[in-house]
Amino acid sequence: MNKRPTILLNPGPVTLTQRVRQSLLREDMCHREADFAALMLDIKSRLANVYAEAQNSFEAVTITGSGTCAVEAMIDSFCSRDRTTLVLSNGIYGERIAAMLAAHDRPFRELRADWRDPIELDKAREALLYDPGIRHLVAVHNETTSGRLTDLTPLLDLCAEFEVDLMLDAVSSFGAEWIDFSHPRLMAVASTGNKCLHGIVGIAFVLVRKTQFEKRTSNSDGLYLDLFRYHAAQTDGFSPYTPAVHACFALQEALQELADQGGWRARRQRYRQLSEQIRDKLAALGIATFLDAAVYSSMISSFKLPKGWDYPGIHDALRSRGFVIYAGQGGLYREMFRICTMGDIQDEDIARLLASMEELICGRATR
Ligand SMILES: Cc1ncc(COP(=O)(O)O)c(C=O)c1O
């Protein structure tokens, strides 16, 4: 008899640890009271400490919403109204950033790569050479569409060469992949509590280089997404609007758990180990990775649909065995599926998953 809950192998929301789940049962709290302010200040400090290099020069600003909310707040608050933002996209989430810039009526240019490919650094260099109006670059660190992780070093070096700043969507990488917060051209990093940090949906955040709040005023064209308002209110631990209090309980516990487990490096190691185990077994079953395995982030891999299977077939068969996998987005729905190792995934879960895959694939093969 399987006592484990359904295991979420989608890239967030994640299967919660018992510790985080239990934290939701804390006594209710009013967000205008001192105990909530202390909680918020603790979360902000822990977020800025996930990467030691961020500790002194970055400030975490939290916002109630999902990852998209944090990314849009970053774009709305910081992207210039008169100078160009260059977006380097290679998947749904990069393309969404370009859509945000269009929605907020900011001057931008998008260098859109195929979803199978890396971002186009050469074209970015060309754009920077010929357009001195470019002020910011924006990119997605771990493009969840495919699982490809972008190497930030050449991107940040390019920013340094042309004296522009980088804003990063690290929604599916913060807490488990290397982000060079010591690089002076890294300006802001948006993420959420419910992916690599293992909290629940409802609280997202942007780590902003502190000097940004000192030297400029907000570019926001609204209220709710204006990070400058949150920054001002959160100096004392409060929030301009009602925050997701229970998501804050979960995030505080999840951040303590991350630290207890050895921090982001240990989490990356654990994710990698599970992802490699999955890729090795699926390769042995004849299921190829969609991209070269070397380009994947530690926790998301995409796979070609095996011969004779469509996505609903493989999804439903695994769902009935206690696992949720993830479809390809857009046109990739008919080509691939994704498996993500974020969350409370235990060795026995992976053993059961792989046994189920073998049963399905080999059962089919002999039919
Ligand atoms: C890289 C990336 N950016 C942004 C988002 C959007 O986050 P949300 O769905 O939490 O709004 C996601 C969601 O998976 C993501 O993976």
Characterization of the model:
The chain is an alpha/beta fold and 367 residues long. It has two domains: 7-14 and 263-366, Aspartate Aminotransferase, domain 1, CATH 3.90.1150.10; 18-260, Type I PLP-dependent aspartate aminotransferase-like (Major domain) (Aspartate Aminotransferase, domain 2, 3-Layer(aba) Sandwich), CATH 3.40.640. The chain is built from twelve helices and 14 strands. The longest helix has 22 residues, at 263-284. It is globular. The model has no long low-confidence stretch (mean pLDDT 96). Residues 11-12, 66-68, 71, 93, 140, 142, 144, 169, 171-172, 192 line the site of pyridoxal-5'-phosphate.
Keywords:
three-stranded antiparallel sheet; seven-stranded mixed sheet; Aspartate Aminotransferase, domain 2; alpha/beta; binds pyridoxal-5'-phosphate; 40% helix
Major β-sheet profile: 7 strands, mixed
**Number of helical elements:** 12
Low-confidence stretches: none
Distance between the amino and carboxyl termini: 28 Å
Q: CATH-wise, what's the superfamily of the largest domain?
A: Type I PLP-dependent aspartate aminotransferase-like (Major domain)
CATH topology of the largest domain: Aspartate Aminotransferase, domain 2
Number of strands: 14
What is the level-2 CATH architecture name of the largest domain? 3-Layer(aba) Sandwich
Coarse structural class: alpha/beta
- Write down the secondary-structure element order: EHHEHEHEHEEEHEEEHHHHEHEEEH
**Overall body shape:** globular
User: CATH first level of the largest domain: which class?
Assistant: Alpha Beta
Quaternary status of these chains?
Answer: single chain
Q: Summarize model confidence as the mean pLDDT.
A: 96
Q: Which strand order do you get reading across the main beta sheet?
A: 2-10-9-8-5-3-4
Beta-strand portion reads: 15-25%
| Bound ligands | pyridoxal-5'-phosphate
| Domain module count | 2
- What is the rounded Rg? 21 Å
Helix percent band: 40-55%
